[in-house]
Amino acid sequence: MSDETRKKIAESRWLNWLDKRFRLKDYIVESMEHPVKPWMRKWYYCLGGLTLTMFILLVITGIILLQHYEPTTAGAAESLAFIMGDVWMGWLIRGIHHWAANLMMFLVVAHMVRVFITGAYKNPRELNWITGVFLLLTTAGFYLTGYILPWDQRGFELAQRTLELVRKVPLVGNPLAYLVTSEKIAGDEALHFFYMSHVIILPLVLFILLLFHFVMIRRQGIADPL
Ligand code: HEM
Asked: Is the pTM of this model over 0.85?
């Protein structure tokens, strides 16, 4: 960090205000002085950060979509048509949500491949790799439930097939599927479950996993290249 930046931090009024209350300054200075080694500047070391950027974009656009989306089999498609045609910039918000979701899915896999190829999953980062596997599954969960929500032909079939697959799991499959819906053919109950998963359960799970992921990265640092 340059002397000028150090001086700016020391003199910043709002940073001093925050520091008096939360003692944040040492942490900020430490973060800014954290060494970025030359090999970390390669583009493929940005894939994790880009995945996070997509998630933040999805949360912001998702909250706006929530305002207008109706999670019922009769109203879902109509509410989406309303978003596309009548809500100010609705088509853009939905478009950004759609493309950010596709990009997040692509980026999380690319990030995983980068971690694998650079051997960054090895001792002492095994637990972070395992957390990553759960992050990947959670992202896939978002992707699946997101495509169910429009309740068009594809959405209905995805819900129906997912429930059929769950029912095939020995012993626990049937009770689990019954928890989601008592109906044989996916309907309102199932749509409600997938909606609740998409907007409450999965975001909470992802948030907790990310917290763990980032604390571990901060403690262990980025792995040296092989
Ligand atoms: C929502 C999904 C994810 C986000 C937002 C995320 C974010 C990040 C970020 C920002 C880093 C710092 C270095 C970099 O960007 O490459 C990182 C490192 C790491 N990630 Fe992820 N990640 C995710 C999923 C995964 C997955 C699926 C795996 C593997 C199964 C994984 C395993 C790791 C490991 C082992 C490191 C340490 C790498 C090193 O030290 O070089 N992550 N992650």
From this structure: yes
* CA–centroid distance, residue 159 to ligand 1 (Å): 30
User: With contact defined as beta carbons under 8 Å apart, do 101 and 93 qualify?
Assistant: no
C-alpha closest to that of 100 among 47, 48, 149, 58: 58
CA 222 to chain centre: 21
pLDDT in tens, 27-63: 888 888 888 888 889 999 999 999 999 999 999 999 9
Report whether 147 contacts 158 (CB < 8 A): yes
Confidence of residue 143 (pLDDT cuts 50, 70, 90): very high
Q: Taking the CA of residue 63 as centre, how many other CA atoms within 13 Å lie in the half-sphere pointing to its CB? A: 6
pLDDT > 80? residue 1: no
Q: Which domain holds residue 15?
A: 1-34
**Which residue has its alpha carbon closest to ligand 1 atom 43?**
48
How many A from CA of 111 to the centre of ligand 1?
A: 6
**Domain shared by 25 and 135, yes or no:** no
Q: Which one, of 220, 20, 18, 7, lies nearest residue 120 by Cα?
A: 220
Residues 51, 15, single domain; the answer is no
As given in the structure block, the two tokens for residue 35 are 């060494």
Residues 149 and 125 in one domain: yes
Q: Is residue 146, in this structure, part of any structural domain at all?
A: yes
**Residues 21 and 127 placed together within one structural domain of the fold:** no
The Cα–Cα gap between 105 and 47 comes to: 11
CB of 135 closer than 6 angstroms to any ligand 1 atom? yes
